[in-house]
């Protein structure tokens, strides 16, 4: 079964063809990062207009790369939430039009659930077993930080979430504060490379007791005080970035490992844009009590492949009519 996956929830116009939920036949992504970079963040109106320009060429390229004619597509899957209402509408409208014209089922996909499914996708020459249930998923993106227990396809329960900033959002704000550009995650990781964090910059970690929730706003404020020189001379940018990254990674990895032990799961899945972060991947691999699944870096940030993969396992539940609306505030479960 070949599914066309379409994703426009934020600033990536993306489409992919995935076979049987696991085999990647094509994966096309038009990033708007450079466009939004000059504003230091995603401008929703600008993003929606850019999706309109990019969506047709991106979908066409995804079909061409997969050497797939429209008749060979079995279903059209699309992100309907969460995300920016105006950008979600572009992908949803196109998906509806294609499903109608091709007379194929339309499948509504939850963007957060789909991030987890990046761990089901196999790359050419890199065959691997699918993750075993029950599993614990950590979804760390620009808008969300969720810890979910997954007992089967469609059987998700949220165990924890961020109480303020998402992990990716914290990276983006940090990068802006330190003058490192947008998107912030890769910029912070790059500048922190090779710095030994405990070198003197001490930053707080919000453990929140026994809770599975997260909080990153206190950390952000602490860095603000440091950078403004309110605690003596401001440390070098690279050291501050490294100490910040260290604090975020430490909390994410420790709380995820603890929740995995408590829930007695068989695997831990890392996913979402922040899952591309090297120190997070390494630290969680060391601390997780069970095997850790991590998607290839290119499938961590937003893409259509994860939408096509998720849709395969959620085909019946996700089947939608042409009256499907966007759900900007949709939770993971
Ligand atoms: O999942 P994603 O592409 O979009 C959302 O669904 O939000 O995640 C984007 C987020 C951004 O905040 C970006 O700064 C962060 O993922 N990110 C990273 C890295 N690459 C992307 N954060 C830390 N380290 C990275 N290497
Ligand atoms: Zn995302």
Strand order of the largest sheet: 3-2-1-4-5-11
CA radius of gyration is 20 Å
Instruction: Give the end-to-end Cα distance, rounded to a whole number of Å.
Output: 26 Å
Main pleated sheet:
6 strands, mixed
What are the main properties of this structure?
11 strands, single chain, 333 residues, binds zinc ion, 6-stranded mixed beta sheet, 11 helices, 5-stranded mixed beta sheet, globular, binds 5'-O-[(R)-(carboxyoxy)(hydroxy)phosphoryl]adenosine
Describe it for me?
Helix content is 40%, strand content 20%. By secondary structure, it is an alpha/beta fold. The strands form 2 sheets. Strands 3-2-1-4-5-11 form a 6-stranded mixed beta sheet, sandwiched between helices. A 5-stranded mixed beta sheet has the order 8-7-6-9-10, with helices on both faces. β1 and β2 form a beta hairpin. α2 packs parallel to α3. The model has no long low-confidence stretch (mean pLDDT 96). The structure holds 5'-O-[(R)-(carboxyoxy)(hydroxy)phosphoryl]adenosine and zinc ion. The site of zinc ion has 6 residues, from α4.
